[in-house]
Specification:
ATPase_NBD, 6-stranded mixed sheet, Ubiquitin-like (UB roll), 4 domains, elongated, Cell division protein FtsA, single chain, alpha+beta
Length: 712
């Protein structure tokens, strides 16, 4: 037999390993040999290899027996269970206007472009913690389209733009690496890899059936893998980490049995009337009817069915038309009925399927017409098709396995290694935006330094094509430095102001704050800092800069028998000219502080001239102010005027006459009228607003008072 024409497939399951060898004849696969062996220990759990050497021993034993029939086997096709499965639905397009009739290679290029897009999407989407730890293990074409029209196949078609939509499936590196390690330890080389539900669906649900909303559930020992078809394509893959081992565990727990004994009991539950004998861990023999054991398993079977149904409804978003059960766990009693109930579909719509006949495979023996043979037959069938294979590279001393998606580039290697390509450029440092007295200034960051890519010691580019066993060394670029300027570099300070205060020379620096906090010239600045420089320009700012607080002189008096104090604030001159606090200053100005003067009695007593304290009349045509109320001031026993100086320590008596209506006599007194100026002989007439009146007549604001004399 020509071994170059042989296809070798291994289904490495949680409970057992099935090996198949087929020979390609006229486009079909003729099954020539098959072997099965169970793991001697629980070397696999939930589809994950836990004991590589134990699994490798079983693989070697199965391979050895097959080789005794067909000859030397070196390359093997395998499938992975959907443990920790991640799926992405991705589209890709291809310009085809100038290509003429499309070929199978064009179709394949479009598929691979979609897979590369899926890898890029996984690397940037954040769907998984470390994209470099995930491998694409298979894909299914959802649809092709040409110029916007959905089409079954692109081969032989012409158009401007072709497109594809695929479902790409990814598994953690740990799952694939342990699988690869076991295969290598058995002396084999992994030729192709797919996903178990992809293999199973290609056997039981051909493209002619995929217009139906069907669900394929591969119930193994550790996992239950789900695949769904609808509208002519596969629409999703999923996984439930529960399967046949949960039922075995339930038997073991209920009857206190060794796990392997419980597995043997489970396989004998085909007939409800059958009596099954077994011995528990205490050495006590038992003989129970199958129905009794099945009844004890009912809650666990319902739990398994509900978990599978939940995954189906999540992926499908509605009840499916039918469910096909495969895998050894599909034979679990009550499972089809429980799954139908959980999905709320007729029980007849959930069925266990066996590979009685498979399109493209001949010579299937009766021993393989079992539900658990569907997946290995699917792996064998895919081994002769367009599946994925690997190339091995090293990135920064880290081994990386990439699926050989046609023209892989160094950029793909960096993507798989989780290295951000943007990190090679070296970004410029972040610039600073700083405000100086309300004016915005920008300080740019330093330039970045580009990284380097070396392949086998030689410089390389991102677009260079990868080869198997390439060794890449990636040096990331270095980012530019973010500036950290000093305050004096950004905002030069004004020259100090030199002044002479009371004969002493001073130099005053302008106050500077950063974000409202006093700062020194060597203060380092940060982004968004607000710098405020206050120039010293007035007398008040000079005094504040010298921390001089003006202190008033305080004088004390006895006013109407009570103590009273009065404060007089100091006054200043600039260059001998009286100044106020807001007076401007220039370098070299001379400032003198004047001794506070003594206050007047009016200031001490708070006497002010108010408009309502007087009325105004015209006396003999001249304006005259008439007080409405009168003050009486006695200073140290002597009458005094309000404008006199109030000597500190003085005794002051101060009275105020109540408000009253002024009379004509008050007008004469206020006008300092001297009767001696009148003629010695004559008649005197007092006129108020032109009419004769008496000295006791009341006057009001604006009246006219005149003194008229006539000779007798």
């Amino acid at each position: 037999m020509d071994n170059n024409q042989l296809l070798f497939a291994l289904d490495i399951g949680t409970r057992s390993v099935v090996g198949l060898v087929g020979e390609v004849q006229n486009g079909t696969i003729k099954l020539t040999a098959s072997e099965r062996e169970e793991h001697h220990t629980r070397a696999m759990l939930d589809g994950q290899i836990h004991d590589v050497q134990e699994v490798a021993g079983v693989l070697a034993a199965v391979t050895s027996r097959l080789e005794a029939t067909v000859g030397k086997l070196t390359k093997v096709a395998v499938a992975a269970a959907g443990r920790a499965l991640c799926t992405l639905r991705i589209s890709a397009e291809l310009e085809t206007a100038s290509r003429g009739p499309l070929t199978p290679e064009d179709e394949r290029s479009l598929e691979l472009a979609a897979i590369q897009t899926a890898q890029a999407e996984l690397a940037t989407s954040g769907a998984v913690a470390d994209p470099a730890d995930y491998y694409c293990v298979g894909y299914s074409v959802v649809s092709f389209s040409l110029d916007g029209t959905r089409i079954k196949s692109l081969v032989g078609q012409r158009g401007k733009r072709s497109a594809i939509e695929v479902i790409a499936t990814f598994l953690p590196r740990q799952v694939i690496d342990s699988l690869q390690s076991s295969i290598q330890a058995a002396g084999l080389e992994m030729a192709t890899l797919t996903l178990e539900p992809i293999a199973a669906i290609n056997v039981l649900i051909p493209s002619t059936m995929r217009h139906l909303n069907l669900v394929l559930v591969d119930v193994g020992a550790g996992t239950s893998d789900v695949a769904i078809t609808r509208d002519g394509s596969v629409i999703g893959y999923g996984m439930v980490p529960l399967a046949g081992d949960e039922i075995t565990e339930a038997i073991s727990q209920h009857f206190l049995l060794d796990f392997n004994v419980a597995e043997t009991v489970k396989r004998q539950l085909g007939s409800n009337n059958k009596k099954i004998a077994f011995t528990d861990v205490l050495g006590m023999p038992h003989k129970e009817s199958a129905k009794t054991i099945i009844d004890s398993l009912a809650p666990k079977v319902v739990e398994l069915a509900q978990a599978i149904a939940g995954e189906i409804l999540t992926l499908n978003t509605q009840q499916p038309q039918a469910v096909l059960l495969v895998g050894g766990g599909a034979l679990t009693p009550l499972l089809p009925e429980a799954l139908a109930e959980a999905l709320d579909i007729p029980a007849a719509r959930v069925a266990i399927r066996r590979p009685d006949s498979i399109e493209g495979i001949t010579g299937i023996p009766s021993a393989l017409c079992t539900p658990d043979a569907v997946t290995p037959l699917g792996i064998l069938k895919l081994a002769g098709g367009r599946t994925l294979n690997f190339i091995n590279i090293t990135v920064n001393e880290r081994p990386i396995r990439l699926f050989n998606l046609s023209r892989l580039t160094i950029a793909d290697a960096l993507l798989a290694a989780g290295i951000d390509i943007r990190a090679l450029r070296g970004r410029p440092g972040m610039g600073l935006t700083i405000s100086v007295n309300g004016q915005t200034r920008f300080i740019p960051g330093g330039h970045g330094i580009a990284g380097q890519i070396m392949r086998s010691g030689q410089p390389a580019k991102l677009t260079d094509i990868l080869c198997d066993q390439d060794i890449l060394e990636i040096t990331p670029g270095s980012d530019g430095i973010t500036p950290t300027p000093l305050l004096r570099e950004i905002a030069p300070l004004p020259e100090p102001l030199t002044i002479l205060l009371d004969g002493q020379s001073f130099q005053l620096e302008s106050p500077v704050t950063v974000n409202g906090i006093p700062a020194e010239p060597d203060t380092r600045l940060c982004d968004r800092d607000q710098i405020c420089i206050t120039s010293i320009e007035t007398l008040e700012q000079v005094l504040a800069g010298l921390n001089l607080v003006a202190t008033p002189a305080e004088y004390r008096y006895q006013v109407n028998g009570a103590d009273r104090s009065y404060r007089v604030w100091p006054k200043y001159t600039i260059n001998a000219v009286t100044a106020s606090l807001d007076s401007p200053l220039s370098p070299g100005d001379r400032i003198e502080t004047l001794k506070p003067p003594l206050p007047t009695l009016a200031e001490v007593l708070g006497i002010t001239a108010k408009d309502d304290d007087t009325i105004h009349v015209l006396f003999n045509g001249a304006p005259c102010a008439i007080p409405v109320r009168r003050y009486s001031i006695v200073l140290d026993g002597q009458p005094a005027e309000a404008g006199q100086t109030a000597v500190p320590g003085s005794t002051i008596e101060f009275t105020i006459s109540p408000d009253r209506q002024p009379l004509i006599s008050d007008v004469l007194l206020a006008a300092d009228f001297d009767p001696r100026t009148l003629p010695p002989v004559g008649r005197i007439t007092v006129l108020l607003n032109g009419l004769p009146t008496e000295y006791t007549a009341v006057v009001t604001n604006g009246d006219k008072v005149d003194i008229k004399t006539t000779e007798i």
